[in-house]
Structures are given as structure tokens and as C-alpha cells.
Design a protein that fits this description.
Strand order of the largest sheet: 1-2-8-5
Shape: globular
Strand content: 35-45%
Helix content: 10-25%
Largest sheet: 4 strands, antiparallel
Radius of gyration: 25 Å
Number of strands: 11
Distance between the termini: 87 Å
Structural class: alpha+beta
């Protein structure tokens, strides 16, 4: 059986190129952060830092919203343990022209909700975005308050 010896030099060049890209390209990618240079780690907060949930009273839920982030009003709901959506009164929202959703009510800085007929166990679901264009996945927090 005869081998094609003319292919070996080409294969060596291609293999060398791939190894060089892997060795020299990896530090460049790592230096730009997880999402590249425009979404580096210093600009993007973890969801639990961007949205800090507290329950100062049995029927009150407060969410502190970090600078550079906002919370969607319509994607913030409170449910009981059987999944029924509970009625809430909320602090004032502002309108935002969302590139995907159009005019949308959002909250910046702080959202305070008072829950009508609050049960001992509530499930808060919320979603927000960072001003740099990254939207967090929906978050869910279980809240309970002993009376």
C-alpha cells in the first residue's frame, strides 16, 4: 500500500497553526471576561447583588435595585403556595422604551409592594436587566413571615 507523502507537510502546518491559536488565544479571551470586553465582570452584578429582596413586614416586600439596573413591573409577581397570583399595590413605576418589548413599566432604585391578604408563605418572581443590555433570567424567592 502506498501513502500520499505530499499531505504530511500540509497537515503539520495546519496542526501547528491550531496549537498556536489555542496557546496564544486563550489568555486574550480570558482577559476580556465571560461575555467579551463590553460585558466584563466589573460591569455586571450577580442577580442577588442587583436586586436585594427584603420583607420588613408580613404584607410588605421591598426590592432594592442597584444603580445601572432596572426591574420590569409586569414581570414582578407575588404568588401564594398554590400558585395563585396575589394582588399588590406598588410604588410608582416609570416608562421605558424597551428595544424588544416597546414601552414598558420599570422600577429603578427601589420597589415597594404591599400584598393584599398576605399569607404566611409567598413566592416572589421577578426579572430585570442591566443598562448595558444584559437581561437577567427570571429569579424566584420564597418569603415567609411568622405572625
Amino acid at each position: 500500500m502506498q501513502y500520499d507523502n505530499g499531505r504530511k507537510p500540509v497537515q503539520r502546518v495546519i496542526s501547528s497553526f491550531i496549537v498556536a491559536v489555542c496557546v496564544f488565544g486563550a489568555p486574550l479571551v480570558e482577559s476580556q471576561g465571560s461575555f467579551g470586553s463590553s460585558f466584563g465582570a466589573p460591569d455586571l452584578l450577580a442577580p442577588e447583588q442587583a436586586f436585594i429582596v427584603s420583607q420588613p413586614q408580613a404584607d410588605v416586600i421591598e426590592i432594592a435595585i442597584a444603580d445601572g439596573t432596572y426591574l420590569y413591573d409586569e414581570r414582578t409577581i407575588v404568588q401564594n403556595d398554590t400558585g395563585d397570583i396575589l394582588e399588590t399595590t406598588r410604588s410608582a413605576s416609570e416608562m421605558y422604551d424597551d428595544p424588544l418589548l416597546g414601552p414598558t413599566a420599570i422600577h429603578k432604585k427601589r420597589l415597594r409592594m404591599t400584598v393584599s391578604s398576605a399569607p404566611n408563605l409567598m413566592i416572589l418572581t421577578y426579572q430585570g436587566c442591566a443598562d448595558i443590555g444584559f437581561c437577567y433570567p427570571p429569579q424566584q424567592t420564597e418569603l415567609s413571615f411568622s405572625r
